[in-house]
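Structural prep section.
Before we set up the soaks we want a predicted structure of the protein with guanosine-5'-monophosphate in place, mainly to decide which crystallisation condition to try first. Input record follows.
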Amino acid sequence: LAMLPRIAGALESGRFVLYFQRIRALDALGGDHAEVLVRMHEEDGTVVPPAHFIPAAERFNRMPELDRWIIDATFAQIAAWREAAREMPFSQISINLSGASLDDPTLADFIDERMRVHGVEGELLCFEITESAAVADLERALAFIARAHEWGAALALDDFGSGLSSFAYLKQFRVDYLKIDGQFVRNAANDASDRAVIEAMVHLAQAHGLRTVAEFVAEPALLPMLRALGVDYAQGYTVHKPAPLASA
Ligand code: G
Ligand code: G
Ligand code: MN
Ligand code: NA
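Run finished without errors. Recording the tokens verbatim:
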């Protein structure tokens, strides 16, 4: 079946579901973070991963709407934990933003309003921007980043090293975290070239005052290795497999 009506139907019937993945601080003193990951539930209960619907949602310009739904639903979950007299179960929660959302000049006002409605402090939040999400209007993206920092939120450059614009993005965007693309991490225990790339990214990050997150940490042996290379956080199946956010 064509993806667009399935996406529209899922938006209308509330069949997008928030998942999350823990991000472990490799420094024992730091608190864990988490990243919000969206899944689409079909009417028959099948769970569709984002790789199957995000490209279509981007093509048909539904990502700004989906990103807004994810932002509001994440804030509502934070408010629900608070109502249950629980702390958020991680010290920071990351939300991915598509390129189209970064190009939307009204996004920051929307987030600001939803933060006030749900009583969410900016210090709890991180926004991930990916270098593959072509930013059409640099000034708008820069204005968003400035607003996010005014709230006390953090910014992360996602999938770092996967595209052609890594260094330009690092120069242009004042971010707080570099997320080392999983292609350099997955096999790093057996690949000296991958380890050299990770080491170089850690130096680059440290020179700019940024912290690093390694993605796709799927083997336990990677954890001490990444810590020794100076990586600050690890995300991947050996730390935590994505699970429904409501179960956190
Ligand atoms: O969850 P999964 O690893 O299948 O996600 C694949 C990709 O889909 C991620 O790398 C991310 O870029 C994108 N993605 C996942 N969840 C979200 C989300 O909530 N919002 C946006 N904009 N992208 C997401
Ligand atoms: O694009 P982004 O990096 O934001 O999305 C992360 C995606 O990578 C999520 O969809 C998540 O399910 C997936 N992921 C996270 N850790 C691992 C891992 O260790 N192995 C694999 N294969 N996928 C992972
Ligand atoms: Mn991400
Ligand atoms: Na990523």
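Observations: DSSP finds nine helices and ten strands in the chain.
Flagged for discussion at group meeting.
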